[in-house]
Design goal:
By secondary structure, the protein is an alpha/beta fold. 30% of the residues lie in helices and 23% in strands. The protein is built from eleven helices and 19 strands. Strands 11-14-17-16-15-18-10-1-19 form a nine-stranded mixed sheet. β3, α4 and β4 form a beta-alpha-beta unit. α1 packs across α3. The longest helix has 19 residues. The chain is elongated. The structure holds pyridoxal-5'-phosphate. The site of pyridoxal-5'-phosphate has 11 residues, from loops. Pyridoxal-5'-phosphate (PLP) binds next to loops.
Amino acid sequence: MTVSAAQAEVVVDLAAVRHNIGILAEHARGADVMAVVKADGYNHGAAEVARAALAAGAAEIGTTTIGEAVALRAAGIDAPILCWLNTSDADYLGAVRAGVEVAVPSVAHLRAVTAAARTAGAPAAIALKVDTGLGRNGVAAAEFPDLLAELGPAVADGTVRLRAMFSHLAQADIPRHPMNGVQRDRLAEAVATATSHGLRPDRVHLANSAATLTRPDLAFDLVRPGIAVYGLSPVPEFGDFGLRPAMTFRARVTLVKRLRAGQGVSYGHRWIAPRDTTVALIPAGYADGVPRTLSGRFDVGIDGARYPSVGRVCMDQVVVDLGDNPAGIAEGDPVVLFGGDPGQPTAQEWADTLDTIHYEIVCAPRGRAVRRYVDG
Ligand SMILES: *Cc1c(COP(=O)(O)O)cnc(C)c1O
């Protein structure tokens, strides 16, 4: 008995990930590359992407939580891993035991990490996260002196290793925005202050994808790209930088049929066939990651041509209009919802239509959509 292929699937091209790491490394001009694989690798699969990125020369891996980082260790990733958003009661003992570096954005976090290191009898690797203007995570300027005062003895007695100081940009997708230079200078200043207290970080980092590709002056010792690893341009108006999208969201035609002029299609009959026509049923809906707000506002790609969706996107399915179906589209034919090959619909198109960013689009496929890997 053969197992039938998934009705909806997310195909991830690991050769594209390796290619994109190469492009990022070129732009980093000697700085190391940390591949960010938070949120399950932007929904591409954290462990698989991390392995491909490291094979292509990335030096480190970045995640959001300790849970994500420890799962990568369990999957056999032994490169340095940093995680940067944890409550102060998170499992720091688990992080220390797994050799995972944690970001410290406050005195409370530092106390939790040093307590875990003492319990483990092993040093904790930390990255001091500085708020240089994003106004989100990171130690605020007012708390910085207190943090340095507590960090000093912990580093001196070997409880903590200051592996990095870092910060995150607020305006990186506007490369010429003056805030980028301001944050660079504030980070350099914070590093100088720490160093004057005898606290010299092993490395300093600031740049996300956009800064890596457009602002070499922000690279410091290491760059921290996420979205560009997956092949999506962080500054679309600057072009694609030669990146290759790694994700293709696909399905297979479930049914093809003729409709008479005047027949309404899908819930609410929001589309009425203006002429006799042929429609195809695609088995992917909002439960699989096709937003209902896209109803009637996107095309799918079938065999190199594009066809408009018509009527409501439902929980499980969507209908597209094939017209007179000159290409002879048939049940079982592969359909691209979005992908990266020339002429195909893209995540950027969905983002433009929905007034959002492609980051959110690639995070959408879920539910019954089965992930599968290809290589080239
Ligand atoms: C998500 C994230 C990144 C990567 O950002 P991209 O815009 O995807 O390159 C880098 N650093 C931090 C702290 C992040 O949260």
